[in-house]
Design goal:
The protein is of the alpha/beta class. The protein is built from eight helices and five strands. A five-stranded parallel beta sheet has the order 3-2-1-4-5. α7 links the parallel β4 and β5. The two termini are about 15 Å apart.
């Protein structure tokens, strides 16, 4: 499947190495999943990962390498999309970048735990799935 991973999914995949988001990242690294991203998603991911309460969750000696590893994966192993100017998620306009990447990249789905996106429901026939729903639907090991 071709998917857009919300920033919360990307960040969670580093924080919880045994959780469903890490399983999704592992499938991506194995080329079993294609990920769509954009400059806006990449920048937001880096900004969130560098917040003191997030970076403090990693062993100090490995924090930078883990963050750089994910950012490199986004740059080198994800489909980059241009950015449309759409305004869809009224309650959280930052979520528009996720929808835009999905529409531009013709994603099969969006993977997110964000309540604003989940409450939106499918957008232009693109379902918005939780990480667990995605794993189940696409049989991710």
């Amino acid at each position: 499947p071709t998917v857009v991973l919300d920033v919360n999914v990307l960040v969670s995949s580093l924080i919880n190495p045994r959780g469903p988001t890490s399983r999704i990242q592992a499938a991506w690294r194995r080329n079993e999943v294609s990920v769509i991203t954009s400059e806006a998603i990449n920048a937001r991911t880096e900004e969130v990962l560098r917040r003191s309460h997030i970076i403090g969750l990693f062993p100090p000696s490995r924090a930078e390498s883990r963050i750089q590893g994910l950012l490199t994966l986004l740059q080198n192993q994800a489909i980059q999309t241009p950015t449309l100017d759409l305004q869809i998620v009224e309650d959280d306009p930052e979520d528009d970048t996720i929808i835009i990447a999905a529409v531009e990249g013709k994603a099969d789905c969006i993977v997110s735990g964000d309540r604003h996106l989940k409450n939106l429901g499918p957008y232009e026939n693109i379902p918005i799935l939780s990480p667990s729903e995605f794993i189940t639907r696409y049989n991710i090991p």
